[in-house]
Design a protein that fits this description.
By secondary structure, the protein is of the alpha/beta class. It has 18 helices and twelve strands. It has a four-stranded parallel β-sheet. The chain is globular.
Length: about 450
């Protein structure tokens, strides 16, 4: 069933799916043709995307686009549902350590206006609740939660606050005011240890004062108690250790997949599929075991292609380090159409890709991982981490994608670009992408082409 790696349209996938079925394709229960997500789910953006043509990519897309179904099935089966907001990769590890418990991120609703090309009316609902376009597109979460159409009401709703997006905190507070009780826990701004202060090493290369780690442990202990109350059973250290080992299996698979996709001579997996694959790390798309199976398939396909020297892009594609996820998935296709390829990424959750220490008590390990969040530290810290990633994967340019209306840091993009240029001497630029970027595509194309040409000219 293998054929030459390529990116194909939805029409192309119609034909490809028929070929795979005739060839004996074996699919998971959520499998099927991609087009059904347009016809049955209203995911109209799929009509404008280009997809990898492998069975592994088909499984990935079907897994992503059936998460809402899984959550409702979990509710029908009597499982406990935990909605974790803003920590991106910590609370879901704890929740999934309990039996018959699944976790999801309401934050993920920020992509619904893109995938449904604004036909979902979620942003209009947010407007009516006082959150207009001056706020981050994550405001779509309000409508998604209130409508009850995208995911069921959770048994427990948690939210990290402190060193987090002000927009998100305001939106979450509005949600609580509308009748959704939230367990708030604090993720403090990470700071450098002072002279003589006990320091603790964090995943990803940074350090923090020991007292900050102790504070986060105490906050996560409150989350642990809430999880135990919601599930009606203790969350033991042994269960959390098992959960950490399973999460690390996901992270190791992603680590190898990223290494191949971002550094192999011929790019074995496109940018769009890699973005989605990385997103699986933060909450396992509501099914940890299936996440492992999906990533195992993707990695096997990437290895097969890398071994054969086969790629989905031309051999002279310019490696670009991409910072922040795009509000419109189509822009990942656009980068490759302009002659680029992803060679490293920071989609705001790098800490969810780092292995959680297994030689420490579970709560200590999770506290250190939470504090390693790139958004919990300074912009200069994040820029330093990005520069390390650029060196690791040999990227020749960098793009910082601003989130429309977001309040993370008004000057963060400029700080990162300045650091990349001064430290590494490669071109870097900021762009801003709305949830549906069709009207801006000519401008975005021009800017990306100019960046790619600037990177190429440095080699001449």
């Amino acid at each position: 069933m293998n054929e030459r790696p390529a990116k194909i349209t939805l029409d192309g996938w119609d034909r490809r799916y028929d070929e795979l079925r005739r060839g004996g394709l074996v699919e998971p229960p959520y499998g099927g043709p991609l087009r059904r997500h347009v016809e049955e789910g209203g995911d109209r953006r799929l009509l404008n995307l280009k997809f990898d043509n492998s069975p592994a990519a088909l499984r990935l897309w079907n897994f992503l686009l059936t998460e809402e179904d899984r959550l409702f099935l979990a509710r029908d089966a009597g499982k406990r549902i935990v909605a974790s907001m803003k920590d991106l990769g910590t609370v879901p590890v704890m929740a999934c350590s309990l039996p018959d418990t699944v976790a999801f991120y309401p934050d993920g609703a920020w992509w619904i206006p893109c995938v449904m090309e604004m036909h979902d009316a979620l942003l209009a609902q947010a407007d009516a609740l006082g959150f207009d376009e001056s706020f981050c597109p994550v405001r779509a979460m309000l409508g998604a939660m209130l409508s009850g159409e995208h995911y069921p009401r959770p048994d427990l709703l948690t939210c990290a606050v402190g060193a987090t997006c002000d927009d998100f905190s305001a939106i979450a507070q509005r949600l609580e005011g509308l009748g959704y009780p939230i367990l708030w826990w604090e993720l403090p701004a990470r700071r450098k240890p002072e002279a003589g202060e006990d320091a603790v090493a964090l995943p990803g290369g940074f350090s923090a004062p020991a007292q900050q780690v102790e504070f986060v442990k105490s906050e996560l202990q409150r989350v642990r108690q809430a999880l135990e109350a919601a599930r009606g059973m203790p969350l033991t250290d042994e269960a959390m250790a098992d959960g950490i080992r399973a999460a690390n299996k996901v992270r190791r698979l992603l680590g190898e997949l990223r290494r191949l996709a971002y550094s192999a001579g011929a790019c074995p997996m496109p940018a769009l599929e890699m973005l989605i694959a990385e997103m699986l790390a933060i909450h396992f798309c509501s099914d940890r075991a299936e996440t492992i199976a999906v990533l195992t398939d993707l990695l096997a396909e990437a290895r097969r292609r890398a071994h054969a020297g086969a790629g989905v892009l031309s051999g002279d594609a310019v490696g670009v380090f991409w910072v922040n996820p795009v509000a419109d998935l189509r822009v990942m296709n656009l980068l490759e159409d302009c002659g680029g390829r992803i060679a490293g990424s920071d989609y705001m959750f790098c800490h969810a890709l780092e292995e959680i220490p297994e030689d420490l008590p579970a709560m200590e390990a999770l506290a250190r991982t939470a504090l390693a969040d790139p958004m919990a530290g300074s912009s200069s810290d994040r820029a330093e981490q990005i520069c390390r990633g650029i060196r690791l994967f040999g990227a020749r340019a960098a793009v910082v994608c601003r989130i429309p209306g977001a309040s993370h840091c008004a000057f963060e993009g400029a700080i990162i670009c300045d650091e990349v240029r001064s430290r590494l001497g490669i071109p870097a630029m900021e762009i801003e992408v709305p949830p549906v970027s069709d009207a801006m595509l000519p401008t975005l194309r021009t800017r990306l082409e100019a960046l790619i040409e600037a990177a190429r000219s440095r080699r001449k």
